[in-house]
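FORM 7B: Structural annotation worksheet

SECTION A. Query
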Amino acid sequence: MFGRENLVDAPRMDNPLEPDISHENPAAKGEWFGHPRQLARLFTTEMWERFGYYGMRALLTLYLTKHFVLGDHASTGLYGGYTALVYLTPLIGGFIADQYLGSKRSVKFGALMMAVGYLTLAFGGHPSKPFALIDGQRYEVQIDNFRDRPTSAANEQRFLIDHGQRLKIKGNDDGSVAFVAPDGSIARTVAKGGLVDGSDKSPLMVTVLLIALSMISVGNGFFKPNISTMVGALYSQSDQRRDAGFTIFYMGINLGSILGQFFCPILADWLGWWAGFSLAGIGMLVSYFLIQFDGGRLAGYGETPERAGGDKALVIYGLAVLAIPVLYFLFRNLMSTPAPEPGSGIVGYIAGLSLMGKLLFGTFIIAVPGILLWSFLKGSRQEFQMMLAAMVLIVFNVVFWTLFEQAGSSLTLFADRNTDRSVFGLFTLSAPQTQNFNPISIVILAPLMSILWSRLARRGLEPSIPVKFGLALMGVGAGFLFLVFGAQFAGPDFKVGLWWLAGLYVIHSIAELMISPVGLSMITKLSIARIVGLMMGVWFLSISVAQYVAGVVAQVASVETVGGAVSNLQVSLTTYLGVFTKIGWIAVGIGAVLLLLSWPLKKLMHGVK
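SECTION B. Predicted structure
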């Protein structure tokens, strides 16, 4: 959590909006824990924004699978596409703020756009009505004791209506589905894959859902890169408190995510999905009010740059609103794109990607060799080698975040279906709340990791950047393998103990702290100075690609469902463990390869640490 935001929120190095305050003593204006007082307001603003974002994100996959009954494949794909845009739109929002709006107005506009998006999500309408297709024939599916909440009722049961007869749906261990008559006899059995889960969804409500996600994506682009720019503007370039100030600021990120992922699911379970999303929207409104009504405390920070031709704010706001239908179209295309044909190979896979996937992959595949070719032709031999090292690490960075970002999709579904979420028998966490193990671990472990690196550095033993990247990849794989190991102790209900899932998140958090804090720093140090901004863009693009691919990986872990629920917990557990085992060993193997490459990469980096 901390590390991911470090990637997105770090201040732009060439920001022209930072006022020259080198001649001023910020302490003369009052301090907050030894820092400018304005940091407290920006800390709180970011905390409430993250409260809304992570509170909503914790609910999203379950909302898609349970309320809209989209199925695992469509739900995780849509989730991956949404998070990909969340990490891509800040590139545009940061440029607009630098050139036209200024950071402050960008943050306020983005906050309002996201608040409206969260509140729009609250209008989900009635849950979709499930049905099943068997041999092309449609059958109604009825659900007894249905609870349209993140946490389903324990006694929820699904029935297939066949010529007026209610047949209980029972999944078999081999993946087939049996239909049990009221007298207990098996009326019919359908082979694995013979039942297709579907639902009658309100076209209006699906439209509202996609518009809401589009609004949040646009608003995020204006908010995320610019709140950090305002933090950076509080300090002169020579102010030694700058790094400590950003550390405090990032604690606000983790505090907000912990609170959002705790309280939004609680309200969603108590009152309904609308309450959880509304609380996220309220948090976002608080964030807006803190900037809008600052009492002059932020005067002079993030102001609109002076440009010839007058103020372009209204034009920019209008274009931002017009971007909503563009993103809506991308989401629609993502949902309607069929899976590639089996055996079609990599060419068939790329051809079968959604438009969003083609744009992301196409841009990334062109950008990486294109920039390297330019570096070879225009840069010195040393500059080219340093750029080559940076590009290699960027590619490995995609692999790390692809696997790490299973938290909001496949791991959340695993927590809902195959995890005993009881905490020492005292109370039970909801599936969305299990995501909190990551930010809590970051808050606890970040200071310890910092102390560790400092002590190793004093002894000349601190690992190089490629070694840290390699260890991080092996760590993210080890987290999955740890969960797989714990699954052997699952009970007869095919549910794994909560602490095995918690252990995965702790291991992933350690891995995150190895790769994230050095990411942007690595780019600024290895890039040719005149294209460092472009390299920053490639770095963020790599994270966006990783988010999209994370959705694809989660689709591989999809489990066949009926009416939004799995029919056999043993089958779902086996499916998840099979995928987690595979990606776990792949990550360990790729990490080992990077460790082997660390020595030649270190030479290419020419002393950059």
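SECTION C. Observations
The two ends are 24 Å apart (CA to CA). The chain is about 65% helix and 10% strand.

SECTION D. Sign-off
Analyst initials: ____
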